[in-house]
Amino acid sequence: MQYDWIATTAFGLEGLVRRELNGLGLDARADNGFVRFHASAEEAFDANLWLRTADRVMLLAAEDRAETFDELFRLTRSVPWHEILPRNASFPVSGKCARSRLMSVSDCQAIVKKAVAEELMAWYHMSWCDESGEKYPIQVSLHGDVARLSVDASGEALNRRGYRTWNGEAPIRETLAAAMVSLSPWREGQPLHDPCCGTGTLLIEAAFRASDRAPGLYRDFLLEKWRLTDQNETAKRRNLAKARFTPAKLPPISGSDLDGAALELAARHIRQARLDGLITLSQQDLRQLRLDKNAPLFLTNPPYGERLSDRKTCEKLYRSLHELQARHEGSALCAISAHPGFERAYGARAKKKRRLYNGRLECEFMVF
């Protein structure tokens, strides 16, 4: 059976998520902050397993105008929740509102909870919902006068790949790191190096992509326990994904940093990502860094210098990145930064630029 789904993502990454869904054989349409697609529960499992730049996969239960609390209640009550939720389902309700007349998130949550409970109690002939079973988190999202009701099929956010259990200073989110890899001009077989690698997230996401490793390969999703889903089929799909993982395809991938503690965390993360021995780490100052690889791609998330006292230091580092690229004939360098003067400090104009968000920070991804 086919259902409507949405894959939520950070602003600016909708096109990447749409292309990833297309690559899974699914028709998809990008919207602001999410991508819509139509698929079976098993195909939605594939989306959870393979999407690199999405935050969550959600089952879309209903979407319509709701200008009053009564309209929101009627919309929610009209959904055949019994077709999705078993009689003992646990269904916590979260909510968010933006420019809506129904600005009380807590009231919207309570109304949705009441309407879902009424539908389930009427269908199953119950006097109350004990919610002792599997979890089906429901989200009510109001944007303008449109309400969207969805059920979280992922559980933990999709950036939680399972390999990063220790965080260093200012870690980059896994989904943003994967987006940087996708947006870079990295060619098959080309060496890749991160000269400010920190705890190794960019290196791991690059290795996942190059080795055809599903980012969600070794984690669970709520959808797997839903009654809509054929567990035997999802187990087969996970095994097929394991068979596709080909470490032998990896080109040279390496990283360096001045911070020894960060490099220790990077080594742990690489082990936990099951990439031990496939990524090289070294403690080096990028001002002296020289690779013995031809035409490498430098891909990095350098410090932004958000504090005024750090800005001059960061600008010197950006200039050193330009000198690093100049020392390596035929190389390209990609960096993300929230520093408005990055190109001036770097000493060159980017060939391509794209606006991305690192958390709430508006950044530019630049290709030199």
> Which ranges are low-confidence, i.e. pLDDT below 50, for 5 or more consecutive residues?
none
Tell me the major beta sheet. Answer: 7 strands, mixed
Contiguous helical run count = 10
Strand-residue fraction? 15-25%
Quick check: average pLDDT?
A: 95
Question: Which helices and strands appear, and what pairs or packs with what?
Answer:
Elements: E1 2-8, H1 14-23, E2 28-31, E3 34-40, H2 41-50, E4 56-65, H3 69-77, E5 93-98, H4 105-124, E6 138-143, E7 146-152, H5 174-183, E8 192-194, H6 201-210, H7 231-244, E9 253-257, H8 260-272, E10 280-283, E11 297-300, H9 308-326, E12 332-337, H10 342-346, E13 352-358, E14 361-367
Helix pairs in contact: 2-7, 3-4, 5-6
Task: Give a brief rundown of this model.
With 368 residues, this protein is an alpha/beta fold. The protein is 33% helix and 23% strand.
